[in-house]
Each structure stands twice: as structure tokens, then as C-alpha cells.
What does this fold into?
Amino acid sequence: MNKSITLLETLFSLVILSIILITSANLNILLFKQNKHSNELLLAKLDFETTRLFLENKIKSDLGLENLSFNDNIIYYNKNILLLNIDTYKKDINNNLVNLNICIKRSFEICQNIKVKNDF
It folds into this structure.
């Protein structure tokens, strides 16, 4: 009788440990997926911000945006790659404001409207 109670306690312990291990594994997978998504989102925002700063610098140094082009889902500046994996690109120049609408395709699509003031 004593051995059967010990065996039953061992089985219950194994079941509880199995449930804990499966739950923690699922939690780790969920955290990994959320971290990957957040990382891709932050990288896309960083790409947009560096592009905006680059274009502001080019406008302020009077080089303009005539060399900015879009071909095969890539934005080029002066025939050098500026941004990759572009899904949508639209450039509007109104008086002293340059408005770029860019969408980057990653595991999801993120769009940004970049406005650069032209002060010359």
C-alpha cells in the first residue's frame, strides 16, 4: 500500500512538472515572436528616421532631391541604394515642402509619411 501511494505521488509530480514545462515553453515561444515583431518594427522606424535625416541633410546642403529615384522596390539616391524592400513610394514637391510617402514590406507592412522642409 505504501509503495502504491509513493508511485501515485510520483505520477502526480510528473504530470505537474510536464504542465509547467509545456506552459513555460509556450510562453517562451510567444515572447520570442513578440520580440521579433518589435525588433522589425523598430528597425523599420529607424530606417525611416535615417532616411529623413539623410534627405534633410541633402536639401540643406543644396544638393536637392533630383537624384532620388525608385526602381524595383528600391529607393536610390545618386544611383546608390538608400532603402530596400519598398512596397509603395510617392514623392510630392510643393513649394518648400517635400512629402514622401513610403511603405516598407517586412513580415508586415509599415508606412511613413516623411516631410522635409526645403529652405532655399
Q: What stands out?
A: The helical segments are 2-60. The longest strand covers residues 86-94.
